[in-house]
Design brief:
Blueprint: H1 3-6, E1 13-22, E2 25-35, E3 40-44, H2 51-58, E4 66-71, E5 74-75, H3 81-86, E6 89-91, H4 104-119, H5 121-125, H6 127-143, H7 159-171, E7 177-181, H8 189-204, E8 208-212, H9 216-222, E9 225-230, E10 233-238, H10 240-245, H11 247-252
Parallel strand pairs: 3-8, 3-9, 6-7, 7-8
Antiparallel strand pairs: 1-2, 1-4, 4-5, 9-10
């Protein structure tokens, strides 16, 4: 880790001292981390470690009890989800949300139009913006290999394609940072490599990524840097190789004695 990384210089998103408790249960305690745009970052840990709560805080679905969040140098702590999304921070959920009875194409059009209304584009540009949204949807579907399923209802997709369709919906918002919550959950093992490559392609397009997932082999394959959580705290961080060899991670996350 370089000196600039140690002090957070160049980080796209930074958290400092985040704390969140639900009654007597502390879900996140004193979490500080930096996320850099030039690498795919992963967040791992056992159930109840606080990973999803941290995602919820960063994206505005939960307010922290203490601590600060900055995105691109600007404070976003306590902002509503739509305000944070408008700044370019977008997320998926472990269980895909949206419009299951719509076709893949219709789902993307609604997602794109919703973002356009949020940012005021449709009111200013009218038909031109609608055509641009359609072109963007076509491009995203082709890049993710979903163009063959354009007329398929979302709830009829295989699990892997459904996760890609959810990814496609969020890409319609033109995010600068995309947080993926359990993208490999429920995906057929044979489709994991395809999912990994699609995620790498998204990152290569200029979008920063942070991933939560319990599939450790998937995480260590796709991520460039890994933060490990347990009991609401970051207990280790490093490259995938360092993470796999870390005795604390092996004991707490993998159940292997140090």
């Amino acid at each position: 880790m370089t000196a600039s990384e140690t002090n957070g210089s160049g980080a796209l998103l930074s958290t400092r001292g985040l704390h969140k408790a639900f009654g007597g249960n502390v879900a996140v305690h004193d979490v500080s981390l930096d996320l850099y745009p030039d690498r795919i970052t992963a967040l791992i840990g056992p159930n109840g470690a606080g990973k999803t709560t941290l995602f919820n805080i960063v994206t505005g679905y939960e307010r922290p009890d203490a601590g600060e969040i900055t995105f691109d140098g600007q404070a976003v702590t306590g902002m509503a989800p739509w305000e944070i999304s408008r700044r370019g921070v977008v997320r998926t959920f472990q269980t895909p949300v949206g419009f299951p009875t719509m076709t893949v194409w219709e789902s993307l059009q609604v997602a794109g139009a919703s973002h356009a209304v949020l940012t005021g584009m449709l009111s200013r540009r009218g038909r031109h913006e609608t055509d641009e949204l359609s072109h963007r949807a076509e491009e995203i579907l082709q890049n993710l290999g979903l163009d063959r399923l354009i007329d398929t209802p979302v709830d009829e997709l295989a699990a892997g394609d459904r996760k890609l369709a959810e990814l496609a919906r969020q890409l319609m918002a033109r995010p600068r940072l995309l947080l993926l919550d359990e993208p490999a959950a429920g995906v057929n093992p044979g489709a994991i490599s395809r999912l990994s490559e699609q995620i790498r392609d998204v990152h290569r397009s200029g979008i920063a990524l942070m991933i939560i997932d319990h599939n450790l082999s998937f995480v260590l394959d796709v991520a460039d840097y890994v933060h490990t959580m347990a009991n609401g705290q970051i207990i280790a961080e490093g490259t995938p190789e360092e993470t796999a060899a870390n005795p604390v991670v092996r004991q707490v996350y993998m159940g292997v004695e140090a």
